Amino acid sequence: MRSTRVLTGITTSGTPHLGNYVGAIRPAIAASRASGVESFYFLADYHALIKIDEPARIQRSTLEIAATWIAAGLDPERVTFYRQSDIPEIPELTWFLTCVCGKGLLNRAHAYKASVDKNNAAGVDPDADVTAGLFMYPVLMAADILMFNAHRVPVGRDQIQHIEMARDMAASFNHRYGEHFVLPEAAIEESVATLPGLDGRKMSKSYDNTIPLFAPREQLKKLIAGIKTDSRAPGEPKDTEGSALFQIYQAFATPDETVALRQAYADGIAWADAKQVLFERIDHEIAPMRETYESLMRHPERLEDLLLAGAAKARAIATPFTAKLRHAVGLRDLRAQGTEKQAKAAKAALPSFKQYRESDGQFYFKLVDAQGKLLLQSAAYASPKDAGQAIRALQQDDAALAQFAPVGGISQQEVAQALHQLRDVA
Length: 426
Ligand code: TRP
What we know:
Bound molecules: tryptophan
CATH class of the largest domain: Alpha Beta
Radius of gyration: 27 Å
Number of helices: 16
Largest sheet: 3 strands, parallel
Strand order of the largest sheet: 1-2-3
Strand content: 5-15%
Number of strands: 8
CATH architecture of the largest domain: 3-Layer(aba) Sandwich
Helix content: 40-55%
């Protein structure tokens, strides 16, 4: 099977906090280490422009978020880690999708509708202060996803609608121009906790209740001391239910450690002592990463290099794919008048599968190159359907090659190359 492509973007509009770490960064990095997945993580800086018009803040946030993901263990060799604005093909695809996206679909987007509702409630023009950027946000996001034909997109619940819209645009484009896009699915991580913030509500920049992930040790300690608790005195048993402190601890601790703190609550641990326990536990996990983070923040050139290398990797996919899409929609070299004859000639220059039946009544196929040279010979199949299935397996994945005996004088590599050629035009 071809590997699953997983892709997600992080808007560069803030400083990562503990809630982002527990809810998104840590699970994403763990998932990127699984086998059989190809991960794409990117800094959505074009998206940040929709919300922020302070250039220095955009730059700062981009630096902080890049440093955070690397410090938290993302391996840029293993995944494709890049900055959206380094991929000029993305705004180009945004336009292609804009032209197949119904305006009504965008009218129904939650983020846009919320702004309109607010304006209506305030009795001002419904579109007051609504930029076309906000309106078009779902199209840009669809381009991010469809450019890399991602199968799965890990996002928060608030983003599910955007994935559905991306699917809609992919289907509209495919319908008009042929099967170019995979229809993506949202992946919602059910088991991951949402972290409460200092005031007990969900930790979020919009509530101003966050603990920055890489706050220096002393500041971390101070912030944790400010977590809201009840007024129970030392020695009085405490409730774990509804305790933000306990929930944050749980997100970092092992099950055994959690059981121990639960017992300490029952035994009447003083809030100050519980906060000390929490502080040490978080610092234990964060301190080594914080060191890497601080070093990266002192060396932005390292991050810049790393992002540019990531962009090159991403563009190795995006550039040829965009060329194919341009052709599909009719943005073409004028000298190459699209004729049947040319299409036929192009096809004749490719290797091909030939299916046939022998006098033994069994079904076979072979792969031959453009000149008719034999590259691969199948064994017998009982039915044409079985033979077809084996061909499809080969078309999808080189691994299927292992089942075939080599043809004399033909290297495995030569066969694989022919298969890749066929895949590239598929
Ligand atoms: N809109 C997403 C958010 O605010 C960020 C984002 C941009 C994104 N492009 C994406 C997420 C593509 C997933 C896939 O969280």
